[in-house]
Amino acid sequence: MERKPRRPTRVVEVGWVKIGGGHPVVVQSMTSTDTRDVSSTVAQIRELEEEGCEVIRVAVPDEAAAQALREIIPQIGIPLIADIHFDWRLAVAALKSGAHGLRINPGNIKGRENVRRVIEAARRAGACVRIGVNAGSLEKDLLKKYGWPRPEALVESALRWLDFIVGDLGYENVKVSLKSSDVWHTVAAYREFSRRSDFPVHLGVTEAGGLLPGTVKSALALGILLSEGIGDTLRVSLTAPPVEEVRVAWEILKATGVRRRGVEIVACPTCGRCEIDLIGLYQEVERRLRGLKAPIKVAVMGCVVNGPGEAREADVGLAGGKGVGLIFRRGRIVRKVREEELLSAFLEEVERFLAEREKE
Ligand code: SF4
Fold it and tell me: Which residues does the UniProt record annotate as the domain IspG TIM-barrel (predicted)?
């Protein structure tokens, strides 16, 4: 099955990052620190940047958090989005502190007049506004109309707010999310919205769960949507440290072929032919290459019989054997080393490969 081309959407701007209109799908995450604790928040954002986070969202639950943004923003290298619930004044304060974007659920800002105030402040600041529709906090009249937060209800809520913000207020630096904790409702909502609007969408499955179930749910929903060309930015929501969200987001983008960054590892599942500690070796390779930003595909294979052949597409690979190991490039064996030198020889070969490619 071929991945479909990206759906054409409008371009919006979160600070200096462009979203939509064929620009690369942007990876976002959200801090888990208390925003008022400036040093912890900055440290976490820097860690996330290093891992490949391109836009960060922070909770702004009170005035002190809004003020803390003044100190946080100058110390980070990616645009910041303030997450606002209920109080329009906090949105205005966050924008005055330099936030590059807002995430609001207009339904809980209570009243069109307050949403208008938020939009006017965003217009003055040139900030992007995400209309974050959420199955858990849908407007009462839509719940009544549809009986439960059906995908159609999420879409109607998003279109209604777009109509007000874009149609009535004339503000277009807007993107949309339609989140549900159910994979199929999420997929259906984004599909339907994308059929009816060309505003860029922020993908995510809300409250997806811990690292394993959350990764599976997110990979399923986001994988389907990305393969259909839907999605301009995304966040994987996990009950886990946010750095894991960024890692999983990149793995989804790499697996769908939407973007490339850093290492992609092909590894055999091991079988009765394997005579080395392949799982330990794999973990070490993953740890040592984690910081790489340049894209490279490597293979970690259990045996010399099938390893190189099975991993022909990898740029550099290793295959274990009895007392010896092989290093290969694109399936061609280039070195034979003693088993205890296998890891270091492999890492040398990766460095050599990257240096040579740089020169090309
Ligand atoms: Fe088994 Fe070798 Fe294939 Fe790994 S590469 S699964 S050890 S045959």
Answer: 9-250
For 285, the domain range is 263-359
Q: Are 129 and 102 in contact (CB under 8 A)?
A: yes
Measured from the CA of 301, which atom of ligand 1 is nearest? 5
Alpha helical stretches, state H, the chain:
38-51, 63-72, 88-96, 112-125, 140-146, 151-162, 183-196, 211-227, 242-255, 278-289, 307-310, 342-359
Q: Whose CA is nearest to atom 5 of ligand 1?
A: 307
Asked whether residue 271 is marked as a ligand-binding residue, the answer is yes
53 is in an annotated binding site: no
282 and 236 within one domain: no
DSSP class of residue 6?
P
How many domains are contained in the chain?
2
In this prediction the ipTM stands at: 0.99
115: closest CA among 152, 85, 153?
Answer: 85
Mutation test of ligand 1: which of 265, 277, 300, 306 has the most ligand atoms closer than 8 Å to its C-beta?
306
**Do 157 and 142 contact (CB within 8 A), yes or no?**
yes
* Domain identity same for 239 and 281: no
Q: Which residues contact ligand 1 via a Cβ below 6 A?
A: 268-271, 273-274, 301-303, 305-307, 310
For the stretch 93-139, pLDDT in tens is 999 999 999 999 988 888 899 999 999 999 999 999 999 999 888 88
Residue 340 annotated in ligand binding: no
Same domain? For 130 and 228 the reply is: yes
Cα separation, 312 vs 332, in Å, equals 8
User: Is the pTM value of this prediction over 0.90?
Assistant: yes
Instruction: Supply the DSSP string of 169-192, one letter for each residue.
Output: T----EEEEEE-SSHHHHHHHHHH
Closest protein CA for atom 6 of ligand 1:
270
Look at residue 1 and tell me if it is in a domain: no
Tokens standing for residue 132 = 């974050």
